[in-house]
Amino acid sequence: VQLVESGGGLVQPGGSLRLSCAASGFTFSRTAMSWGRRAPGKEREWVAAITSAGDSTNYADSVKGRFTISRDNAKNTVYLQMNSLKPEDTAVYYCWVVWAGNVYWGQGTQVTVSS
């Protein structure tokens, strides 16, 4: 299993970023996917999840209404559109998957929200 995140960077408060996670090594189209993040000095937290078909999503209260998770099963890629970013969204963002009883994380992509 390999998960490769991209799209992070430095953005001003109120700005937007779109993260991507390219997946391989498992049957992507049959597997729910999630995004999580780890802010400096804090535990890793779950952010959003999407079903294998992309017909249902769920979000942490802290990002609801601002972030949107989506997927393209033809490209084996899951996305996280982040709008109205706040300084407290600063973190390393990871995609993760549960496959064959194991949890797999990507290497993460840094998102910094600062003026």
Structural class, judged by helices and strands?
mainly beta
Instruction: Sketch the topology as an H/E string, one letter per element.
Output: EEEEEEEEEEE
Total beta-strand segments: 11
Strand content: over 45%
Distance between the termini: 37 Å
Number of helices: 0
| Stretches with pLDDT under 50, minimum 5 residues | none
Shape, per Cα inertia axes: globular
Largest β sheet strand count, sense and barrel closure? 7 strands, mixed
What does this protein structure show overall?
It is built from no helices and 11 strands. With 115 residues, it is an all-beta fold. The strands form 2 sheets. Strands 2, 4, 5, 6, 9, 10 and 11 form a 7-stranded mixed beta sheet that branches. A 4-stranded antiparallel beta sheet has the order 1-3-8-7, with no helix packed on it. A hairpin with a 4-residue loop joins strand 7 (67-72) and strand 8. The mean pLDDT is 97.
Write the layout of secondary structure elements.
Blueprint: E1 2-6, E2 9-11, E3 17-24, E4 33-38, E5 44-50, E6 57-59, E7 67-72, E8 77-82, E9 91-99, E10 102-105, E11 109-113
Parallel strand pairs: 2-11
Antiparallel strand pairs: 1-3, 3-8, 4-5, 4-9, 5-6, 7-8, 9-10, 9-11
